[in-house]
Amino acid sequence: MSVAKQLYELQEVDLELESHEQALGQVVAQLGESRAVLSARSRLASENQRLEELGHKQHSLEWEIGDVTTKVAGAEEELYSGRTKNPKELANLQHEIEVLKAKRSELEDRAIEVMEQVEAATAGVGTMERELETLEAAWRAEQESLTADKERLEAELVRLKQKREMVSSQVDSEMVDLYGELKKQKGTAVARVEQGVCRGCRLSLSNAELQRARGGSLMQCSSCGRILFLA
Length: 231
Known about the structure:
three-stranded mixed sheet; 5 helices; Helix Hairpins; mainly alpha
């Protein structure tokens, strides 16, 4: 096997390695918490907090309504008990009852509004919980798939690194060094020759270059400097 062919095989392994390393990096970047899930959890927490605040407000209004109702009952009992004879005091009691009833009516209206808000918030929380469950299920399935991909890619990288060591060990170290320098400079160190053209720079080769390459000599393209490989 010619040195050019050995180096071309080494390049093919390196290209596979780079591709798998890039794929592994993309998989690793996707592992972990999902922004969509985190956002849904945050919205749900905020809505639960709002629902809790509305619940406290509703209980407070119910307590106030109960307190006012107790006062109305007490004032009415005093009004109709016959114990109060003074007309002015009776008028004051009547006025107090009217004020208390007006306040109770206002509180009841507010309580209805809050109750409606509680019902809407409760429904909203339910919807958010179902949406979060769906997002979390999809996220877990994706994470399982990504973890499997990660393990597969890691195993493939181990195999490719072993293959690279084997291929490079069969090539003279100076040629491997030359390959490495060209790879750093140009991205690819070995270029196929097809129909007399270097596929690295896409320029035609001279007859002398082609003959030496066909003869098995290690040749570099006079235009781009890449090692020439005739399949």
